[in-house]
Design goal:
Oligomer: single chain
Number of helices: 22
Low-confidence stretches: 70-134
Number of domains: 4
Strand order of the largest sheet: 4-3-7-6-9-10
Radius of gyration: 29 Å
Structural class: alpha+beta
Shape: globular
Length: 495
């Protein structure tokens, strides 16, 4: 038997060491603008060398011309000048937006370095949810349910847009025709997306008026019988206490009407308030997309949502001159480092958001020009490769960041879609656009021309969309569209 023995070996390997700067950049990049403001306010209170920069500055801008290429990238605001000064003064560099390995691998195996006694970044990650002391908002709750709803991506994007239009009470009071026109879809598509949201919790949410809100809650309880439906349709008479008329309309006696009214009073007229009006966050866009007169696109950062801070170098020099003990000198040095890193990280966060947003706009310019049916296939890797960033960076940027476009306000992550190849070897088609085309073709059917799934495949291939029959059937079923036989019967009955 071979004996046990010990030996020394040298092995070369790579591991990710999370510097304080990289740690901070990751924290700031994934925060929403509201969470970022709260974080910066804490730093202003904690660090005596930081002060708010109230000077006016021009918005950071990218302009995309007709050829889809980036034409101009300006980062010339005062806050960014301060940030570059801080970078120059700091011997350690942090490359968030120019390295493909920038924010990758922020896992449990990383080695975390503390900053020091000033407390800015000592210990674990900044927990935005814990520090903001708020529960999940109604919008977040609905978005979570929408993710699990299993609807097709076009409907999901429309529904997500409707969620963002809801008020604190949980009502969707926007004009659906206007929404449809803005998104470039049929009114029925918006109605269908709203129907999906009507199945979400809390019951009654996303109703357009009180009557619909109460009806949805009764339907959820399986109590929306014909008599109750008539009572809900005549809430104006109920408000006037016109009980004899209500008995006649509903076909019930006085005792039944009393029970029905009591049941109505047990419902919730404002389901959104279950989450607290103060907890429902107003969504402010991080980026504005505007069309130039020549048809090109202008992408601006929303400077109103970007907290701007700078390092008070004069005060730093003043207190450094009077510091006597090593402890005081160490504290001042740490405060200066933390302040410099924060200014630099805010600058890099702004640059990264603008860069990612500009590439998404470049990729999805047809959506902006023609509507949701023209979404292109897009994934994180495509954007990351185009702007030479890591996918994890793009993922962080696109979560909780919103862009205001001529077609409405959208979270950046909504623009990522799956792809269907082109039969002619050209540009691929987004799954959303293919689904929308299938529905459009079916909506155009007549009793003499109802297309089977095979016929739809042939029609789509003729239009340059290479798709399998089973995929057409899957998309059709996901949109709750009956088979060709059932549709033919429905058309015959309707004729």
């Amino acid at each position: 038997m071979a004996g046990l023995h010990q030996k020394l070996e040298m092995r070369q390997g790579q591991s990710l060491v999370m510097t304080p700067q990289l740690q901070q950049a990751i924290k700031l990049l994934q925060l929403s603008n509201i969470e970022l403001s709260a974080f910066v306010e804490e730093e202003l209170e904690r660090n005596p060398l930081l002060e708010r920069d109230d000077r006016e500055n021009e918005p950071d801008t990218v302009e995309l011309k007709e050829d889809g290429k980036r034409k101009e990238l300006k980062l010339d605001g005062s806050a960014h000048s301060e940030a570059r000064d801080a970078v120059d003064a700091d011997n350690e560099s942090l490359n968030v937006s120019d390295s493909k390995a920038d924010l990758a691998g922020a896992g449990d195996s990383a080695s975390w370095s503390g900053v020091g006694r000033s407390g800015s970044f000592e210990g674990g990650d900044y927990d935005a949810a814990a520090n903001s002391s708020r529960e999940k908002s109604l919008a977040e709750h609905l978005h979570d349910q929408l993710t699990l709803a299993g609807c097709d991506p076009v409907r999901r994007m429309i529904a997500a847009h409707l969620i963002d239009l809801a008020d604190d009470d949980g009502y969707m009071r926007a004009d659906l025709a206007e929404v449809a026109n803005r998104l470039g879809v049929d009114h029925g598509e918006v109605e269908a997306a709203l129907d999906v949201l009507h199945g979400c919790e809390p019951a009654g949410v996303m109703a357009r008026d009180l009557a619909e809100c109460l009806a949805l809650q009764l339907k959820d309880r399986n109590r929306l019988d014909p008599a109750m439906a008539k009572l809900v349709d005549n809430l104006d008479r109920l408000a006037k206490h016109d009980y004899p008329a209500l008995q006649s309309i509903c076909g019930v006696d006085a005792d039944d009407l009393d029970e029905m009214i009591a049941e109505l009073r047990s419902l919730t007229p404002k389901p959104g308030l279950a989450y607290g009006a103060d907890n429902t966050r107003a969504i402010e866009p991080d980026v504005f997309v505007r069309e130039n007169p020549d048809g090109s696109w202008r992408i601006d950062l929303n400077t109103d949502t970007l907290p701007r801070v700078l390092v008070n170098q004069s005060y730093a020099a003043e207190i450094s001159a009077v510091a006597r003990s090593e402890e005081d000198k160490t504290f001042i040095t740490e405060c200066a480092q933390n302040a410099s890193w924060l200014v630099k990280s805010l600058d890099q966060r702004a640059r990264t958001i603008l860069k990612v947003s500009a590439e998404i706009v470049r990729q999805q310019d047809l959506f902006l020009a023609k509507g949701v049916a023209f979404l292109r296939p897009l994934n994180l890797k495509t954007v990351a490769d185009a702007i030479e960033m890591h996918e994890s960076t793009v993922s962080r940027v696109t979560s909780n960041k919103y862009v205001a476009t001529p077609r409405g306000l959208f979270e950046l992550k909504y623009f990522f879609t799956s792809a269907i190849p082109s039969s002619g070897g050209g540009e691929a088609h987004s799954a959303e656009a293919v689904r929308y085309r299938i529905k459009t073709l079916i909506d155009m059917e007549t009793i003499d021309e109802v297309m089977s799934d095979d016929a739809l495949v042939e029609r789509l291939r003729h239009e340059g969309i290479d798709i399998a029959r089973r995929t057409v059937a899957k998309y059709r079923e996901a949109m709750n569209i009956p088979s060709s036989i059932q549709r033919r019967r429905m058309l015959k009955r309707a004729s």
